[in-house]
Amino acid sequence: xxxxxxVLLGPPGAGKGTHAKVLSRxxxxxxxxxxxxxxxxxxxxxxLGKRAKSFIDSGKLVPDDxxxxxxxxxxxxxxxxxxxxxxGFPRTVEQAKALEAMLEASKTPLGVVLEFATSEAVIxxxxxxxxxCPKCGTNYHIRNIPPKQEGICDLCGSALIQRKDDKPxxxxxxxKVYHEQTAPLIKFYKKRxxxxxxxxxxxxxxxxxxxxxxxxxx
Length: 218
Ligand code: ATP
Ligand code: MG
Description:
Blueprint: E1 4-9, H1 16-27, E2 30-33, H2 34-44, H3 47-57, H4 64-75, E3 83-87, H5 93-105, E4 112-117, H6 120-128, E5 130-132, E6 139-141, H7 168-182, H8 184-191, E7 195-199, H9 204-216
Helix pairs in contact: 1-9, 2-3, 4-5, 6-7
Magnesium ion binds near residues 16, 17, 35 and 88.
């Protein structure tokens, strides 16, 4: 299992973050989430955070050059040698090409791209009920994954928040952006024969089982 490089692809709310965290624990693979990195940059008030904030809050993508540079820095760190799960990157064809070039240069190609095929009704329900821990990034859902104590993170005790970009009008914008800019990656990775689809509408446990099965056959 070492050296496994995985991309999770799918619309917002498909559960990429939730499943990446579980896989990272069960399979001991590093989880790299561009959404989490960007949110922590915003919290820390860095230059990158300042530039990214308005794009994120309005449901748009952060410009390619910013996220590509951010990922390049991350993939240059020594802990990625054992493999990684990329969650939220690439999100455009431009980003996918940049990633391909980086991995070609280090002769470490992707093992698999897992597409979370998810229906629109499920997405809207998940995002509107989502609550997030601003400190450790753990996601909850007011009905599907409630924390043990209402409004409090099970793992670190912080007060949970609703992300600004999980408001209904922003959710609609994010879905539009997904269809226009990210969905073309399905074709991109199909051509390279690295794509496998899983049913993103499944509940957490059956989908985790499905993902574990997929990874076993790699
Ligand atoms: P999921 O619910 O499936 O985990 P998500 O909806 O939580 O996905 P994040 O990955 O957290 O989405 O990303 C939140 C926002 O951060 C995006 O809407 C976008 O503005 C910005 N962002 C994250 N990754 C990228 C990227 N690769 N390119 C451009 N913008 C990005
Ligand atoms: Mg996420």
